[in-house]
Amino acid sequence: MTTYFDNSQSVTASQVYKSTCATAAHSPSSVQPVNCPIEVCFSDEAQAQLAYFLRLLKQASQQSRWIMFIGEEALIDKQLLKGAGIDTNKVLLLKNKKGISDETLMAKALSSGNCSAVIATGSINTFLREDIRHAAESGSSYAFVINREFKNKVTLH
Questions:
Q1: Residue 104 pLDDT > 70, yes or no?
Q2: Where would I find the H helices in 27-154?
Q3: Banded pLDDT at 10 (limits 50, 70, 90)
């Protein structure tokens, strides 16, 4: 069953991870992504969000679907992904957006059902749209939004 959060507010990677772990403890086979975009903010002061994000991506990479990053600014270091146990052979990078907004691309990728997770950058508020929520739910996919202001501050050790 899909985990539902309040549609009017953003959800963090730590909230989602903790929710999926609680669900997995009761019924491991029924863990499904949430029905709304997940905000990922990480900096030197908040590395826990990065850890939760990577754990969720690892879960997503265990499916027989893709993990799509929309634009190079969303892409996470390949060695970091490998170190987290993420199958990098399942990672796609969409570079040529042809003038289409990241929000529209995210909704299309989620609704296709070919991606277990779709990651973009920007303000979570621009991704809190009904079409993205519906696409994430119908595609049983994670929709992650990396907050650009925090991404620029991250130092990976």
A1: yes
A2: 47-61, 78-83, 102-112, 124-127, 130-138, 148-151
A3: low
What pTM did the predictor assign?
0.77
69-86 confidence digits (pLDDT tens): 999 999 988 999 999 999
C-alpha 66 chain-centroid distance: 12
Q: 152 is written with which tokens?
A: 């620029």
CA distances 79 to 23, 43, 108, 146, Å, are 30, 18, 28, 18
**87 CB contacts (<8 Å, ≥6 apart)?**
61, 62
Task: Measure the CA–CA gap between 48 and 69, rounded to whole angstroms.
Answer: 21
